[in-house]
Amino acid sequence: MILKILPMTRRAILVATIFLITGYTHAQEQLGIRTSNYGGVNALTLNPAAGLTSPFRWDVNLVEFGQFFDNNYLFIENFRLLDVLNLPSKGALRPELERKDLPTPPDRFVVDFYRSTGADFTFRGDVFTQVLGPSLMLKLGDATTVGFYTRVRGSVSTRRLPGILGYYEFTQELYDSSFTVQAFKLSGMAWSELGLNYARTGETDNGQISIGGTLKWLQGYEAGFGSMEQPMRFREIPGGRLLGEQGSTQHFFTIPSLNGWEWQPKRKGSGLAVDLGLVYTISEAEDTYRWRFGFSLLDVGAVHFTKQAERHRVVVTDSTSLFFREFEQFKNVEQLDSIARLFSRQTMKDPYASLQGRSFSIWLPAAFSAQADFAVTPSFFLNASLVQGIPFTKNMLRRSSVAALTPRFENRWLEAALPITLLNWQRVRTGLAARLAFFWFGTEDLGSVFGRSDFDSTDFYFAIKVNPFQFNSKKEEKQRSGWKGHRQPKTKSVGRSKVRCPNF
After folding, report:
1. In whole angstroms, what is the distance from residue 50 CA to residue 427 CA?
2. Are strands 432-436 and 414-417 parallel, antiparallel or unpaired?
3. What tens digit of pLDDT does each residue of 420-471 get?
4. What DSSP element (H or E) covers 190?
5. Domain locations in the chain?
6. Strands 178-181 and 207-228
7. What whole-number distance in Å separates Cα of residue 488 and Cα of residue 504?
8. Per-residue DSSP letters for 301-332?
9. What is the largest CA-CA distance in the chain?
10. 376: three-class secondary structure by DSSP
11. pTM for this entry
12. Cα–Cα distance between 372 and 87 in angstroms, integer?
């Protein structure tokens, strides 16, 4: 959409960055539904042992959709998420309006760009979409749960994109001058998962401990990875040329399955991944808890692409020239292979010199997560959660780091939570999650949904679920009936009488 209003002479440089933050491709972490006692099968994606704490014998997810993006490269002026319902079909660039001394068009949305604030400033961007499809969690007795889920995910991310590649910096400040681009990476992938879950629980002296795991079969549809491996010095000169000195880059990609603007997904790779989790519950009364702690390792695995896939490495040993105008012949991303050939010819004097193979692997956005849940009253809880990305290899998707404190009220039919999150250790946000029976809606960025401002990030999700209208046993009713301030001694029946004796 925004690409259509960019000047053609700059598309070759800005295309990767703009795609990064406007593409249709982790919702953040959807903590409102993931940390709830009523999260059921949806909670397994944060901790695969969480199903054993559910009050239900079974839980079904029909559909869940989540969308998240965050960046500091560009923004839409005076905009909020609700305005998408009345979004004009055309946009305008603020720099172009100022250059032509034009007023803000009343029938268009206006896009502007952030400026670099110093020599060490870097841009970032994250886009994440996921759809959780038909999924089931089932309890087998009191000590075992099994389940499966289906999920489609798309992610694009970059960190430390040099500030010198900002729109204003590159288009206005670098003309006929030298500049250095520091090393950076960007990556993206669209894939689906079929997850098979198993978890077991056992008694401890003061509660329970549960261990679970999810094995995921992955199918990859699209992927891309690019990196500048070391700082490289450039000089932009008149005539649409960019002179570069010694350096090297890597780029992997699949040729997109597009028909115009319509995406027609085709499987181009496969792989395996695993989630592992542990939940430790400290009971204060029979079948209730006062504290619950969880730890999990998420998304450890990769997709190996073997169809319509290319792996390139460009090594520049001497000064070389890039001619922007030669790239203007390419009008869409289906021509990525042709773009790579031209790039190789301009930098290495041979259109096939950079090609290293026709397969590559992209690792999932691995993370460590810790959760702590405190039952303040029978219906009011306080949750603290941490999700920290683990960048253990270069060709992987990056996960946003989230630290959150979430007070919530919940009962069988109603729930409300107010997550306060620190995103990537930089931005504090306030969200809202609500449940009415089987319907969920939530956001971890409430201001972007309802408040107009410079729109550079948002987050929202919704879900439709089905689970028992009533609990299946008196034990389950008691489990959600309330919290007692001290642990009660376990008792047992004697014969058919109603006299109950302490069990020492």
Report:
1. 28
2. antiparallel
3. 999 888 889 999 999 999 999 999 899 999 988 999 999 999 999 999 976 5
4. strand 184-204
5. 2-502
6. unpaired
7. 12
8. EEEEE-SSEEEEEEEE-S-EEEEHHHHTT--S
9. 97
10. coil
11. 0.84
12. 41
